[in-house]
């Protein structure tokens, strides 16, 4: 009886010791597998969410920049509102304002950028506020002092309704209006001029009569004097050619 119990006890002890080798390792392995699966799922979700995260960061940055610029304007307005009425300076009303496209050089080459422009004719000041904000930049208005304005020839550019202005800050700025009527309004406000069309004759000698030309004119005069003023010009020309 004791022998049987001892053998049974040894058997049970051996079973317990052997089961320890996998009963402990299997749960640990399952736990590690679940962690790896969760990590893989997290990486995939992170990759899918990355574009939305970047777009959100850009929108957040633009919103913050807009808030900063608006706050500065509101602070300036608040300071002016607190001043006495006698210290207020009357803001000059623009002669004309509206949207214009400006031909500018960007990182990828020349492109057309839309601005909201205001022109004051008294001091010839053109204020341009960009409507397309670059990343991590503030919308800062550009002020140009006008010197001259000339309509752009249609055969020199692939865009319609264009005109060029010369300013003190920039030698040449090409602008595009919204329509032909809109361009006419801007040019009238800026005292714009029409472009000069040059004659194809470049040399002064080409515009002067040579010996053959004088001979031809002399024949015409002689025929008119001989036949009188009532003669048919076509008959005079035929007689001159026969001579």
Automatic annotation (TrEMBL):
UniProt keyword list: Coiled coil
Coiled-coil annotated spans: 53-80
A GO term from the CC aspect: cytoplasm
Top-level taxonomic group: Eukaryota
InterPro entries, sorted: AH/BAR_dom_sf (IPR027267), BAR_dom (IPR004148), GRAF_fam (IPR047234), PH-like_dom_sf (IPR011993), PH_domain (IPR001849), PH_GRAF (IPR047225)
Single GO MF descriptor: GTPase activator activity
Protein name: PH domain-containing protein
Species this chain originates from: Ameiurus melas
């Amino acid at each position: 009886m004791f022998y049987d119990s001892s053998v049974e006890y040894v058997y049970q002890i051996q079973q317990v010791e052997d089961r320890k080798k996998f009963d402990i390792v299997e749960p640990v392995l399952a736990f590690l597998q679940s962690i790896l699966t969760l990590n893989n799922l997290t990486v995939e979700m992170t990759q899918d969410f990355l574009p939305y995260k970047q777009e959100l960061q850009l929108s957040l940055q633009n919103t913050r920049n807009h808030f900063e610029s608006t706050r500065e304007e509101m602070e300036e307005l608040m300071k002016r509102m607190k001043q006495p009425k006698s210290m207020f300076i009357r803001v000059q009303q623009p002669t004309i304002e509206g949207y214009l496209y400006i031909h500018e050089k960007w990182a990828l080459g020349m492109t057309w950028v839309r601005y909201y422009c205001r022109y004051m004719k008294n001091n010839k000041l053109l204020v341009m506020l960009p409507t397309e904000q670059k990343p991590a930049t503030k919308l800062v208005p550009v002020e140009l002092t006008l010197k001259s304005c000339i309509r752009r020839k249609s055969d020199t550019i692939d865009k319609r309704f264009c005109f060029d202005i010369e300013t003190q800050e920039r030698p040449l700025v090409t602008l595009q209006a919204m329509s032909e009527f809109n361009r006419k309004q801007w040019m009238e406000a800026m005292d714009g001029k029409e472009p000069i069309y040059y004659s194809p004759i470049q040399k002064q000698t080409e515009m002067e009569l040579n010996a053959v030309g004088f001979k031809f004119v002399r024949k015409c005069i002689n025929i008119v004097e001989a036949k009188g003023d009532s003669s048919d010009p076509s008959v005079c020309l035929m007689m001159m050619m026969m001579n």
